[in-house]
């Protein structure tokens, strides 16, 4: 296990470095001049030059990269051009909301997909299987944000069950406010999970030990829960890890639909303000989060299934 | 679209040669999924092509005395907040979004398939470089990377094309590479190599025909995801720019009138749904037909 963990951690660190480099290069390919954009068209050239010096934009690209990396290891993500405060404090204030949304959405995704795929797999080619497969095809074609709007219309506007948007107050209100956004974000990922998990469970059902369990005279339910579900847990965890990047990406849009103040809405407003240290930092933070969540799910799966460690 | 990952079983292989065409046709006729999917997709393509002929009004014609009119015989799906005919805008948006969606996947499909085949077949440093690039690109949340790229390139369709060119080839490269790794070890490739055929001929005649089917099947699913992404970007104001009709901007414009006139943002959503459904079914059907049984 230790060898496997060490190998995976080393690979993750390498990818994080690649992510950092890619983010930096991406942002510095940007053709516009951020100093000019912030000061407006009437600014004098000397003022623009002074601001560029202050932001460290006048030095060479490798020098800027060196500066960026040395700041980064000290945990400094730079200063926002628009808000004039440190980017880390901006992100610190918003990251909780996004993390809560991702957690709620993941929980919903598991609650929705595991029973559905178990149902579909246990009745292969029966009507339940066909219904689940049809629903997952429809779900795949569903734009998440539009589904969110429909949910708002039905549950908030007409039925008054949950708030229309915003973060709510108190822990209870906060959780209530995350129900629809969480559902919306989980629906972006549920169809693909159901499709893969159903195949995973079908494969487990073909295994010899299931035939043995059946031959022993165990009932369908017991076989399904004691033998199939346990063995299908590993692919579920792995799949969650692989799709977490997509889920985190969808929260950007979901936050916009429900007026939540997370990293996604900060990203979008910073893009409109051309506040590029903030855009750069959020891209970096979310990319790194994905790498570490992937690492965590890999290690967890390896803990559940010793065979993975031997690969 | 790039970051959805489905585990893949052992890739389907044809036994060296091609399957007789009539077997494929026979299987196609027996697959209701394929027939329904193809019918929906074909209808939408026709709507997109014939938009100038079949739309009752110009999509930009404003009738300010007649805004948010509701369903009527004059305006089948009513009018929007500027008095533009909703049905005509839906039809023209089909043209916009299908065009952008299809154009956006051409480069990723070609580039990804070629790079994946070469990386899998050659191995060595090329494989290492490609796979490291794939690792890094896949680490980014899809929408975050696309939005960041559009920030750099600029909003509108150019931004979309560039963003997808950078992000989307990864999935094709990965899928095709893993199939190529299997095909490379097969007996018929070994035979071709022993026979002294040049690499280029082995790749084109023996490897590619077996790896490309998977990429083609994935293509139909990818178009769905890309169209959904184009619509999503339009909704965020980063995609197709007004006044060009696009389902995304139509949904976001209509959201304001959700309580008074629900159809404005619901109908374009249904249009996206039907499009996605048709193309997904087409993809699933193709996969069934092409899979050796």
What this model shows, in words?
The complex is a heterodimer of chains A (311) and B (293). Chain A is mainly alpha-helical and 311 residues long. In chain A, 80% of the residues lie in helices and 0% in strands. The radius of gyration of chain A is 24 Å and the shape is globular. The relative contact order of chain A is 0.14. Chain B contains 12 helices and no strands. Chain B has helices at residues 21-29, 32-49, 51-54, 86-122, 124-139, 142-153, 157-167, 169-184, 187-194, 199-236, 247-255, 263-290. The two termini of chain B are 28 Å apart. Helix content of chain B is 70%, strand content 0%. Chain B is elongated. Classes of the chains: A mainly alpha (311), B mainly alpha (293).
Low-confidence spans of chain A: none
What structural class is derived from the secondary structure elements of chain B?
A: mainly alpha
Please summarize the sheet with the most strands of chain B: none
H/E topology pattern of chain B: HHHHHHHHHHHH
Globally, the shape of chain A reads globular
- Supply the number of helical segments of chain B: 12
Strand fraction band of chain B? under 5%
- What is the largest interface, and how many residues per chain? A-B, 60 and 53 residues
Computed over alpha carbons, the radius of gyration of chain B is 22 Å
């Amino acid at each position: 296990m230790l060898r496997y963990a060490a190998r995976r951690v080393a690979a993750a660190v390498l990818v994080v470095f690649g992510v950092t480099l890619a983010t930096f290069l991406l942002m510095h390919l940007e053709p516009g001049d951020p100093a000019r954009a912030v000061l407006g068209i009437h600014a004098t050239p000397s003022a623009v030059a002074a601001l560029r010096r202050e932001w460290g934009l006048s030095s060479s690209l490798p020098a800027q990269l060196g500066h960026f990396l040395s700041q980064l290891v000290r945990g400094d993500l730079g200063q926002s051009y628009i808000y004039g405060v440190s980017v880390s404090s901006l992100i610190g204030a918003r990251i909780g909301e996004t993390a809560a949304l991702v957690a709620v959405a993941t929980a919903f995704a598991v609650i929705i997909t595991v029973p559905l795929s178990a149902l579909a797999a246990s009745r292969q080619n029966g009507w339940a299987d066909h219904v689940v497969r049809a629903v997952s095809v429809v779900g795949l074609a569903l734009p998440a944000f539009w589904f969110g709007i429909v949910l708002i219309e039905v549950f908030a506007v007409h039925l008054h069950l949950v708030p229309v948007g915003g973060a709510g107050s108190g822990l209870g209100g906060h959780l209530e406010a995350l129900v629809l956004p969480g559902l919306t974000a989980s629906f972006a990922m549920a169809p693909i999970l159901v499709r893969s998990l159903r195949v995973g469970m079908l494969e487990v059902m073909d295994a010899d030990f299931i035939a043995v369990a059946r031959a022993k005279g165990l009932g369908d339910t017991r076989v399904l829960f004691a033998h199939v579900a346990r063995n299908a847990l590993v692919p579920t965890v792995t799949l969650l890890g692989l799709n977490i990047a997509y889920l985190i990406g969808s929260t950007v849009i979901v936050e916009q639909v429900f007026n939540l103040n997370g990293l996604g809405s900060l990203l979008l407003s910073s893009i409109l303000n051309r506040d590029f240290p903030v855009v750069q930092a959020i891209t970096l933070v979310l990319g790194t989060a994905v790498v570490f969540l992937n690492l965590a799910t890999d290690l967890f799966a390896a803990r559940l299934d010793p065979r993975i460690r031997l690969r | 679209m790039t970051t959805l990952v489905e585990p893949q079983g052992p890739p389907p292989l044809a036994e060296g040669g091609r399957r007789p065409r009539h077997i494929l046709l026979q299987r196609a006729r027996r697959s209701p999924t394929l027939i329904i999917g193809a019918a929906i997709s074909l209808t939408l393509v026709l709507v997109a092509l014939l938009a100038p002929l079949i739309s009752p009004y110009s999509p930009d014609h404003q009738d300010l005395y007649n805004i948010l009119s509701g369903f009527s015989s004059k305006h089948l799906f009513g009018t929007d907040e500027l008095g533009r005919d909703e049905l005509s805008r839906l039809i023209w948006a089909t043209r916009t979004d299908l065009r952008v969606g299809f154009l956006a996947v051409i480069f990723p499909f070609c580039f990804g398939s070629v790079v994946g085949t070469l990386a899998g077949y050659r191995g060595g440093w090329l494989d290492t470089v490609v796979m490291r690039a794939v690792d890094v690109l896949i680490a980014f949340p899809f929408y975050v990377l696309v939005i960041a790229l559009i920030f750099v390139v600029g909003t509108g369709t150019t931004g979309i094309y560039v963003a997808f060119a950078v992000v989307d080839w990864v999935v094709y490269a990965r899928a095709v590479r893993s199939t190529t790794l299997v095909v490379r070890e097969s007996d018929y490739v070994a035979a071709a190599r022993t026979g002294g055929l040049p690499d280029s001929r082995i790749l084109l005649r023996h490897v590619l025909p077996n790896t490309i089917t998977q990429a083609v099947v994935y293509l139909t699913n990818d178009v769905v995801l890309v169209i959904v992404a184009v619509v999503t970007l339009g909704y965020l104001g980063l995609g197709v720019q007004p006044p060009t009709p696009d389902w995304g901007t139509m949904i976001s414009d209509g959201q304001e009138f959700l309580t008074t006139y629900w159809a404005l943002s619901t109908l374009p959503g249904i249009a996206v749904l039907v499009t996605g459904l048709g193309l997904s079914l087409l993809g699933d059907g193709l996969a069934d037909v092409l899979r050796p049984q």
